[in-house]
Design goal:
single chain, mainly beta, Lipocalin, eight-stranded antiparallel barrel, 1 helix
Length: 176
């Protein structure tokens, strides 16, 4: 196959996260608006060029008050930093469909390198003759690395909000 552009199928994709709350449970959330620019040759996926752009204003934790607080200067400061951007720097095959995906992620104006455990499925032809690829990526980022340090101490010890954010990304692409 030759190098081609791949279009994100948003109806079969998602960007979600979870964070420890009060040291007893996890709060889950998602970003409803995101897009990806991908150029890849399915014969050499490690050479893929990929960028994921997330609209931070689309954050959804099923609590409007919390979402508003997350958009404020205490956290993401969406007026100044409306996007999270992940740009692939390396993709290393680990065997089968498993890869190690490294990239630069920019959150609230701070850029750091992160590595995500990634599974790439396909290419496969759907019932309508379209060529598809699926990508699932999981990892953990520390919000304090990006200046997101708002917190409150608990009477029983520990903090209201955990530092580790578990990230889960599922993307489906169609060959353009």
């Amino acid at each position: 196959m030759t190098t081609s552009n791949w279009q994100l199928d948003k109806s079969h994709s998602g960007v979600t996260f979870s964070v420890r709350h009060m040291m007893i449970t996890n709060v889950r959330g998602s970003f409803n608006e995101f897009d990806a620019a991908v150029t890849a040759d399915t014969d050499n996926l490690t050479a893929v060029d990929a960028t994921l752009t997330i609209d931070v204003n689309s954050i959804n934790t099923k609590d409007e008050g919390r979402d508003g607080h997350l958009k404020s200067p205490d956290f993401f400061n969406v007026e100044q930093f409306p996007q999270i951007i992940f740009k692939k720097t390396s993709l290393v095959a680990k065997g089968g469909d498993d890869y190690s995906l490294t990239g630069d992620i920019t959150i609230a104006g701070v850029t750091k390198s992160i590595t995500l455990n990634t599974e790439i499925a396909g290419p496969a032809k759907d019932p309508w003759g379209n060529i598809k690829l699926g990508v699932v990526a999981d990892g953990v980022i520390n919000r304090s690395d990006f200046g997101l340090t708002y917190n409150a101490a608990l009477e029983t010890g520990g903090f209201l909000i955990g530092d580790a954010i578990k990230v889960h990304i599922e993307l489906e692409f169609a060959q353009a």
